[in-house]
Amino acid sequence: MSPSSVNRSPFLDPGPYAASDSLGILQLRRDHLIPAVLSASADSDYAEGKVENTRFGSFPHSTIINKPWGTQILASVVDTGSRGAKNKKRKRGAEDEGEATTGADTDDTRKNVVKAATASSGFVHLVPPTPETWTLCLPHRTQVVYTPDYSYILQRLRVRPGDRIIEAGAGSGSFTHAAVRAIFNGYPGEENATNGTECHDGETGEMRKRKRHGQVYSFEYHAPRAEQLKTELKEHGLNSLVTVTNRDVYQDGFCLDGEDEPNADAIFLDLPAPWQALKHLTRSRLSSAVFQSVSDPASAENAPATPQPSDAPFRSPLNPNSAIRICTFSPCIEQVTKTVSAMRSLGWLEIGMVEIMAKRLEVKRERVGLQEEGLRGANPSPATVQEAVQRLRDVEGRAKVFHGLQKEKQEEIMRKAEARKRGEKAVKIKEEGKAGKLESLPPSKQDRLERAKRDLEKRELFKEGRLVHRTEPELKTHTSYLVFAVLPRAWTKEDEEKARKKWG
């Protein structure tokens, strides 16, 4: 297979631009993202082609394709009338002229994409697909393993490029995408100087050792979920790196048809009863006593009263040349106790449990004081007692002047009325005294806001205030108990002899 024929995934190599027929992520807010498979065709009900409609406006795919990642995409004015007219036209064509008119109309719309005009409703950011962004916007079919959990799991399992990992309970595929990125060291069958298949060395006449590519073996009991996961992985270009199998691993185990599959180095079990699957994760056939101790016949339909190991030739799904690390994902402590008990019976070591409690911290500078009045992100309350007393004096002073002017105005009205009764001309009070009182007033709210805006140009807000932080009020991560263990490598007399000869 040539490098050009390999279907490269945007999750592993997105490139500098958003390409057609690949996945792109539209970020509306920090935790609100929309996935979209970008299409340049006009096979849509809109004249502008395929459109993503959001609360911040409409975004035709033609305005997104070939834009660099991180670009701010402005909303566009979409002709929704063309959508209704097209539907009506297709309906009349189907009734009057048959299917040929409908097909001709569809072909015509595919050729012509109307250029969209920019709107003022809002914008989104175009970000490349990653396991982290995909976790936040994937369609939920089951509970999701979020980033704080799967990042710690992969680190504890010591997953690295070229490893093979078993995942039981694929669900929505969140952990699957993260595991693919961790094991990726090239596409299977890709031939180049760094990453090639087995080939003949012309100088020595020997076959060079084939490079082992990383692979994820994903098992899912629910058939519709397994098919949906296969479809998503194919759209994302990861189908060559993930083997999805619809199987009940409690009964049928993890071995596949290939001789060296799965040959796993790490295992992740997201199952309701992980202890029932552990009997299939051994290096040798279990004795009847051990098999019965770790089996749960009540949970399986048509299971014998006394479970016995299979008589078929034994195959281990584990890599015989390395220690195997496992993690189980269980929401209840009762599941943990049963899993740990089964692990001890089967020879797993270094058993431990971890609970991930991830919280997001909001860090900001807290600015308090009357000088913050009218500014965003600040508390305009008095910072000290002196500021509070001064503000009260200003309010009382303005109130005193206001009531004094009101009293003088009433007295002037009464004098004018008495003068009219006597037939005399009312004497006008000089305005100088009134103007002097107004000038001596403390600044009004409008004056304070204007002064704060003028002072803002000279201030360095990034240095002012007290640095504070707080935890997010709502936790959105799905936390569970993570049980980790290690199964040592099998060591025989032959291995001991080889090591003794090699190392003396």
From TrEMBL:
It comes from the Eukaryota. Signal peptide: none annotated. Gene3D superfamilies: 3.10.330.20, Vaccinia Virus protein VP39. It is an enzyme of class 2 (transferase). SUPFAM superfamilies: S-adenosyl-L-methionine-dependent methyltransferases. It is found in: Nucleus. Keywords: Methyltransferase, Nucleus, S-adenosyl-L-methionine, Transferase, tRNA processing. It holds the Pfam family GCD14. This is tRNA (adenine(58)-N(1))-methyltransferase catalytic subunit TRM61. Residues 122-183, 209-291, 322-486 form the tRNA (adenine(58)-N(1))-methyltransferase catalytic subunit TRM61 C-terminal domain. It comes from Corynespora cassiicola Philippines. One of its GO terms (molecular function) is tRNA (adenine(58)-N1)-methyltransferase activity. Residues 80-110, 298-317, 431-451 are annotated as: Disordered. One of its GO terms (biological process) is tRNA methylation. GO terms for cellular component: nucleus; tRNA (m1A) methyltransferase complex. Its EC number is 2.1.1.220. Its main location: nucleus.
